[in-house]
UniProtKB/TrEMBL annotation:
This protein's name: Steroid dehydrogenase
Family in the record: Belongs to the short-chain dehydrogenases/reductases (SDR) family.
Pfam families given in the database record: adh_short
Keyword Oxidoreductase recorded: yes
Keyword Transferase among UniProt keywords: no
Cellular localization per UniProt: Endoplasmic reticulum
CDD domains: 17beta-HSD1_like_SDR_c, SDR_c
GO CC annotations on file: endoplasmic reticulum
SUPFAM superfamilies: NAD(P)-binding Rossmann-fold domains (SSF51735)
The entry's keywords: NADP, Oxidoreductase
Gene3D superfamilies, per database record: NAD(P)-binding Rossmann-like Domain
Database matches in InterPro entries: NAD(P)-bd_dom_sf (IPR036291), Sc_DH/Rdtase_CS (IPR020904), SDR_fam (IPR002347), VLCFA-Steroid_DH (IPR051019)
Length: 499
């Protein structure tokens, strides 16, 4: 009787209930807007570490410093009394920027001419950095974008060289510059040196036709999160910026507006946010735009290979590509407490985990699209570690974050086609890569996992592929990030005998 009465009350007052739900939702969103405003006002006033950077060290290192956001950051850091090392591939422009900063702010400058698309660039950078007394700040800003690319060649299929260049410039530069400078920072006395990594808001949304670029930036975001978790007991601040459009050469937007600021306006605001928030757009109007965009459904936002390519060309038709090849590093900690990855190992894991997926897709997808028949597929193997902050697996989980974003954007490019793009994000599977784990229901054999995962082909775009992994992931998703990090540390301590 009481249940019936309750249901009658709901029925009679459904309009009132709906109104209450709408008001609650609007109130919640307005409170989020208020919180954003407070971060950029009260938060900056109370928590910004911008003014303490000079106490952290004498030098700032800025990559991509010859123009745009990099140049603007160099000027803002010089305002704080920091000497600046500027790194870029344009010697003439670098010299001009260095002279301007020296004359305007009365600080020292040094330039390093370096092309980040080349492998040997760090042989030039490393000795130059070693000559600096102390380093207060590293700004990993250098980056490049490809022309609009569509992997079927309808707009512009990226070739092997351009794919390698963007991965070297956008990903490898950030990881290796961090591995060079962070250990030096940790030997210094003084408060809060910082590493500022420039990502992009495109890494947080599905961005077709920019598939590779936002995927590289997804790597940067995950890398920064994991690095910050590795260093949470240290005093190094790791900040990720994911701006929307800024008026720079890279975006091709010449006219600055309130929502598309000049690099100078953006860098001033972003540096004010240093120490306030670990991950931010860095600019209040960008926060407002991101807030609106986040309300929208995704549908509205819409040399080894020289050997492989001829072998692929000999195949009649291709039903499925499984991008599975991958490698991990030994438990890595960028201070060297366990095993700092060296330059060669960093390059190897990025080539193996990232470049292989992009190149194999660029070789096979155009062939798939010329075929008749239904639903060929590309299955890319990522990892659940890319969905959480996972210290000690910093580089590995970041490569898998790249894969997830790459798949999402690729699927959006091909949404009118019949190619199925699937992402698998498994937890631990008993393989040679995870030999420290014992096989069990939750750690299945590779054979058992693949049987289950292939059954999920066409069912859902992103999945763990194994029902017990789904349950495990569901439970893990309930854990706050801080507890997840502590759990990761506990697992690492248990695994040290295998290191």
């Amino acid at each position: 009787m009481s249940t019936l009465t309750f249901m009658e009350l709901i029925t009679e007052n459904r309009l009132l209930l709906l109104t209450a739900l709408i008001v609650t939702w609007i109130s919640f969103k307005l409170s989020q807007l208020l919180l954003i405003y407070l971060k950029y006002t009260v938060g900056v006033w109370c928590f910004s570490k911008r003014k303490t950077l000079r106490q952290a060290g004498e030098w700032a290192v800025v990559t991509g410093a010859s123009s745009g956001i990099g140049q603007a950051y160099a000027e803002e850091l010089a305002k704080e009394g920091l000497n600046v090392m500027l790194i870029s591939n344009d010697e003439k422009q670098l010299s001009s920027v260095a002279d301007q900063i020296t004359n305007t702010y009365n600080v020292q400058t040094r330039i390093v001419v370096a092309d980040f698309t080349k492998n040997d660039v760090y042989e030039i950078i490393r000795p130059a950095v070693d000559q600096l007394s102390t380093i207060a700040c590293l700004v990993n800003n250098v980056g490049m974008v490809l022309p609009f690319e569509l992997f079927a060649g309808e707009v512009h299929s990226p070739n092997e060289e351009s794919i390698k260049n963007i991965i070297h410039c956008n990903i490898l530069s950030t990881v290796i510059m961090t591995s060079i400078i962070l250990p030096k920072m940790l030997t210094q006395k003084g408060p809060n040196p910082g590493i500022i990594n420039i990502a992009s808001y495109t890494a947080l949304k599905v961005a077709p036709y920019l598939t590779i670029y936002p995927s590289t930036k997804a790597f940067i975001i995950q890398f920064s999160r994991c690095l910050a978790a590795e260093k949470y007991r240290k005093n190094v601040i790791v900040q990720t910026l994911y701006p929307l459009f800024v008026s720079t050469n890279l975006t091709g937007l010449r006219k600055a507006t309130y929502f598309t600021p000049s690099a100078k306006v953006y860098a001033k605001s972003a540096l004010d946010m240093f120490g306030v928030e670990q991950q931010t757009t860095g600019y209040f109007p960008h926060e407002l735009k991101a807030f609106v965009y986040n309300l929208m459904p995704t549908s509205l936002w819409n040399d080894t290979y020289d050997i492989i390519r001829p072998a692929i060309d000999q195949l009649s038709t291709i039903a499925c590509l499984v991008n599975n090849v991958g490698m991990g590093l030994p438990l890595e900690l960028f201070t060297g407490e366990i095993g700092s990855p060296n330059q060669a190992s960093i390059q190897n894991i990025i080539r193996c985990n990232i470049l292989s997926t992009v190149m194999m897709t660029s070789i096979i997808l155009p062939k798939m699209l010329t075929q008749k028949g239904s639903n060929p597929g590309i299955i890319n193997i990522a990892s659940y570690s890319a969905l959480r902050t996972t210290p000690y697996l910093t580089v590995y989980s970041s490569t898998k974050a790249f894969i997830i974003q790459f798949c999402k954007c690729l699927a959006a490019e091909k949404y009118k086609k019949n190619v199925i793009i699937q992402i698998l994000c498994p937890l631990t599977i008993y393989t040679s890569m995870t030999k420290h784990e014992k096989p069990s229901y939750f750690n299945p054999s590779a054979k058992l996992f693949v049987h289950s995962a292939l059954n999920m082909y066409g069912v859902v775009q992103q999945t763990t592929g194994y029902i017990l992994h789904e349950y495990k992931a569901y439970l893990f998703d309930l854990l706050p990030t801080s507890l997840w990090i502590l759990l990761t540390y506990a697992r690492v301590n248990a695994r040290k005998k295998y290191v």
